[in-house]
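Structure (tokenized):
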């Protein structure tokens, strides 16, 4: 007999989007050789949106600099279409504005193209389970931006449209606090002595209760309420 965890051994479905054919093919080849299922590739933004909706990947490995439609717009459209989609930006640009724009459009992580093949493969695996993955130095930048946004007052119209504060369980609040501190799901599971899947379930329940779409919004919500300082 196998339990539900052991039974789910399907390969992670990945799509690679880059306008340079040699780079795109090399990344797809490396992913395929490492056990990932490359379900589609695309060379421009419009093609990426169309093919991703048809192929339904778990993880989208996305370049930002694309013809016809920029990467951030591709990310925004596809995450809006399917909030469960994880997007790992793989870009040559380490510009702070590019990183923040990608994250705000719904990207789970951001890796520079100078990363090694091993770093890329690890990043895709971690992105697939919802962990935020950033090239060293960029995670602090993103967290700093969250803190800046959280310190800004909410416009009255937006505040007025907010429903009453939902009730989270003690465990959900505990998980949310650790998410805000930047811990990965694996680290949270080890800290609380619960399974990785249980952590994921708590996060999904919290997203539903708070009417948020992804971990990016969840971290901002937690920081707005000072949970990262507790």
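Design, position by position:
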């Amino acid at each position: 007999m196998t339990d539900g965890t052991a039974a789910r051994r399907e390969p992670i479905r990945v799509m690679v989007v880059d306008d340079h054919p040699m780079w795109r093919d090399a990344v797809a080849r490396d992913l395929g050789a490492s056990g990932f299922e490359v379900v589609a590739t695309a060379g421009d933004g419009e093609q990426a949106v169309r093919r991703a909706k048809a192929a339904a990947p778990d993880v989208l490995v996305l370049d930002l600099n694309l013809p016809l439609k920029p990467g951030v717009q591709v990310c925004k459209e596809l995450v809006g279409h399917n909030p469960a989609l994880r997007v790992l930006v793989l870009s040559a640009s380490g510009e702070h504005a590019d990183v923040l724009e990608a994250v705000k459009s719904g990207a789970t992580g951001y890796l520079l193209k100078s990363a090694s093949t091993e770093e890329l493969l690890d990043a895709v695996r971690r992105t697939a389970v919802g962990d935020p993955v950033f090239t060293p130095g960029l995670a602090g930048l993103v967290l700093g931006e969250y803190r800046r946004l959280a310190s800004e007052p909410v416009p009255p119209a937006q505040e007025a449209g907010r429903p009453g504060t939902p009730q989270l369980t003690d465990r959900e609040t505990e998980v949310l606090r650790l998410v805000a501190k930047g811990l990965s799901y694996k680290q949270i599971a080890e800290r609380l002595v619960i399974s990785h899947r249980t952590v994921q379930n708590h996060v999904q329940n919290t997203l539903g209760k708070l009417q948020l779409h992804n971990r990016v919004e969840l971290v901002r919500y937690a920081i707005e309420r000072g949970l990262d300082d507790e």
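Reviewer-requested clarification: Confidence is low (pLDDT under 50) at residues 1-8, 154-163. The longest helix spans residues 196-210.
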